[in-house]
Amino acid sequence: MSMTERLATLPDGSPVERAVLHGGGLSASVLSFGAILQDLRLEGHSPPLVLGFARIEDYLAYSPYFGAIAGRCANRIAGAAFTLDGVTHQLDANFLGKHQLHGGKLGTSHRLWSFEEVGTSHATLTLLLPDGDMGYPGALTARVRFTLEPGGVLDIRITATTDRPTLCNLAHHSYFNLSGEADILNHQLRLAADHYLPVDAELIPSGQVASVAGTRFDFRTPQRLGDACARGPIDHNLCLAPARGPLREVGELRGGDLSMRIRTTEPGLQVFDGAPLAVPVPGLDGRAMGAFPGIALEPQVWPDAIHHPDWPQPVLRPEEIYEQHTQFVFARVAAPGS
């Protein structure tokens, strides 16, 4: 039975609501704060499939965007500024004091959304960001709908509209751990990506679109994450397509005896290995989270694309509707070596 309940209160006195969903062999908890997917479980598999906290206080103090909707423009924007239609906009510089990450310090991941509708297996949340918020032009109305569909499908649909030309690139930011082990190094990842975006020391794309061949980013055939991460850190965009398109399968994550297939409309997938997390408080079920506790797989437009006109663009105009559709499909498979 689904329900909406008050989970906690923010420091300003605002209540944080939680919806509990069941369907398709899955159960999930969704919070109004950040539109966070707090918990996700597969029937018959005890450990949570995503990283999260039981207490809202831990999200406020320690969360590296666990389960949140990142935006209004996810990922990094170099120099925390962009020019659109001849006008330069200075943004909140919340990354290294000079770039922007995930829409600024009070992006969509740190705002209180409103539950618009909640059913047994679905929940819809909405958020209005005012004109000028975090430096972005235009009032943006965003909506996200989580649905647990038959066959172990977590279905996420995100839409947005604006009253002025602006940037919009919203990304669901769960960290996945399918095995319940302390880290994801024995997971295997496969992605339909021939290219990736190299980054500089500050994780800003260099402007090059490079082949994955011979690199740790070559997941065209399944690769063990421990082997990939041993060759260097992974916090990079894998290029799935030159533009947003129809919903299609783009890859699969396997851990233990579980599989998670990834379907999305998006042209990019940010892959973050979680190596530096080492969260100092326990997560769901009291689990410790050291290095590599989960892997973030974030469908989105390519990072810093506004500074690279030949890349897929995050520009949204008043006559348009931003639409993203992503599915994570969970199933049991034979464990390696079984």
From TrEMBL:
Keywords tagged on the record: Carbohydrate metabolism, Isomerase
Record pathway: Carbohydrate metabolism; hexose metabolism
Keyword DNA-binding annotated: no
Listed EC numbers: 5.1.3.3
Pfam family, one: Aldose_epim
Reaction catalysed by this enzyme: alpha-D-glucose = beta-D-glucose
Family statement: Belongs to the aldose epimerase family.
Name under which the protein is recorded: Aldose 1-epimerase
Organism: Albidovulum sediminicola
